[in-house]
Amino acid sequence: MRLRVCHLYPDVLNLYGDRGNLLVFQRRAQWRGIELDVDQIMLGDKGDFNSYDFIFIGGGSDSRRTLVLKNLEKIAPYIVDAVEKGAVLLAVGLGFQLLGRYIMAEDGTVIAGAGVFDAYTEMGSNRAVGDILLEATADLQEELKKAGNKDITTLIGFENHSGRTYLGEQGKPLGRVIKGEGNNSRDGTEGACYKNAFGTFLHGPVLAKNPHFADLLLLKALSPQEEISLDPLDDSLEILAHNTMKKRLI
Amino acid sequence: MKSKKSIVLGERVVNKNSINKGFRFWLAFYAGRFSAFLCRLFRLSGTSLPGVVALKLCPQLLFYLGSAYEKVIAVTGTNGKTTTTNLISYYLQQAGETVVGNGEGANMISGVATALIKDCNLLGTAQSRTVVLEVDEGSVGKILPAVKPDLIVVTNYFRDQLDRYSELDQIITLLRKTIDGLPETELLLNADDPLAVAVGRGRSAVRYYGVKGERDCKEVEENEIREGGFCPDCGELLAYNYYHYGQLGDYRCTKCSFKRPEPDFVALDVDDSDLLHFSLYLQNKNTGEQEPQKGSLDLHSQLRGFYNVYNILAASAAAVIIGIPQQIIEASLPDYSTATGRLEQFIYQGRPCTLALIKNPIGVNEVIKTILPQEGKKAFLIAINDLAGDGKDVSWLWDADFEKLNQSMISKVVCSGRRAAEMAVRLKYAGLVTSKIVIEPGCRESLEVLGLQKVDQYYILASYTSLFNYAKLLRKMGKAVVNDAAQGLPSLS
Ligand SMILES: [Zn+2]
Predict the structure, then answer these.
(1) Which residues surround ligand 1, an ion (CB under 5 A)?
(2) Could you say which of B58, B238, B305, B354 would form a disulfide bridge with B251 (CB–CB 3.0 to 4.6 Å)?
(3) What is the pLDDT averaged over residues A43-72?
(4) Is residue B2 one of the residues assigned to a domain?
(5) Does B442 lie at the interface with A, CB-CB under 8 angstroms?
(6) Closest of A83, A20, A2, A16 to residue A50, by C-alpha
(7) Do A17 and B395 touch (CB under 8 A)?
(8) B330 and B367 both lie in a single domain
(9) CA angle B300-B301-B304, nearest 5°?
(10) B491 in a domain, yes or no?
(11) Global pTM?
(12) Which domain holds residue B375?
């Protein structure tokens, strides 16, 4: 069995160990006998986004924002289309902000984002930096259970982002902030979900710190429509790491 | 003012007593001295408390203290600051100069203030003639304008502790703005690093050092990360003829005329198979030719690792610039040994044990590349803390090439520190079987587990705040190895 994976802009969005997300995704697939074909889409490249089971875009330095958006606008409609058709997508940090509706710079100029998530970002001098702990939304908890998760209801990561991101009326968060800042330090939300697309500010990498979330993405990538199940893995190390941090943060 | 001039001539106007320092200075100075006395009394070593206290009382303190020195040299950048700073100080001492410096962990403004307060006698007169400072990348805006360096050395810019400095671009912009206010200061920059070169754009008093690319046959390793692949002038992608490591190499802009500047100081014929050896040529940039008659130095060092070529090159170039005779540089380098954590050698449980500081992905990759070719069965201890001195964000562990530890000669990796479990997870995904991974968060306990491994070599890779605890324990539970300078052979102390 093979999955087709797209790593979007690893040449510019490559901060905070985010590429570890793909490593975790790949290993957890391989341990179940599933191989990945990973395409790296660099700045200026085009891709056939309808052919991917999983699309990943990571975090990067804010100074690359304009450069990336200039290139992203050409492929944005294809990404939106793929997500509408059920493609699984994970966007972290700046990658999440870029896939929102728009980003407003400090001087008031507005640049359109890819529009995958009903979210927008207002840049500012504030910066949220530190360990973060979430309680997953009830919907997400339900989905995590289906992916074989027994009793972890939390998500853990390290956030490091500037500006404030707000969800629109259709926007649903990933979870509620228990410790940390989240989307905007104000409304207690973190991240965004739309169909099989997930946006978050959790670095760490988020899939390494949250094996249950990694399995949910893997399950969805294997079968966006019908229900199947994954072979369980021995996650004692991952769970120990998750719980050690959780204890420290509560 | 001292009448004796040594070989290192100070041309700057020295204001030993001429500046009217005023009441606030003296209040701050004596408060600092008194705090230093208390720290000694309570055996608090390595604290910057005296500087913190004195700066509270007199924010301009550094300006007054710094003006008392004939020569001020500052070293900044991400990796290699400590080794470069220490080696410059060492060369100066070998040349008969009196030198004061701070040290790693004391490279912010309070640490610098503490070092200079301690260098003064009770009348407030500096005891040394030169000062060599290691300056934290985020503190250049506070420290450099106050001490007005004659020479600033920039090592490199890698991603490091991004929670503290969030962006490399900001650090570089900060340094550029800071030196705009220091027109007299000379710069010595790493030509092989486009990010370091960006610091000197538009300035005239800039000299460069670089390593000649003979490693170009080495293919670029997939797992290594590259930062700074963009032109500082026009923002376009840079193209490379070869890489040394990280983004260091021979680059040029694909759109404008920006390219690696021709270095004034070139390292040639680098032998990094064991103890480092290379030639340093002083290059005439007008003719583009090497001028052996003008100067070529044959440099032998006890240090290992290709990354140390840059540190030795930077320090030796700085020494040439400030006027230290080349014979002194050549003759004294072989006797220079490393500061704590830079591949320090111990004997533990009767086995050789190497202790190394790790603080960012490039550093880890270079350390691993240096030690893996060594013979025999190995066991590792990796200690990761997440305190302010380490960097609170440990996600960089996923950018480092721990995949290299997945090999049969490594039988065990003990993970310790506050992030022991996360380190273990990293190793699991690097491909190590879980039976090779042990989690033991405690410092002494983890060292005991390591000591049970029947292997030929031990290696301890530790983040900053746990490094000194391991060094201390290894001295107690084992023995430190000092290199016998005359023979170049290791011996037990
Ligand atoms: Zn250019």
Answers:
(1) B 231, 233-234, 236, 253, 255-256, 258
(2) B238
(3) 87
(4) no
(5) no
(6) A83
(7) yes
(8) no
(9) 125
(10) no
(11) 0.74
(12) 342-480
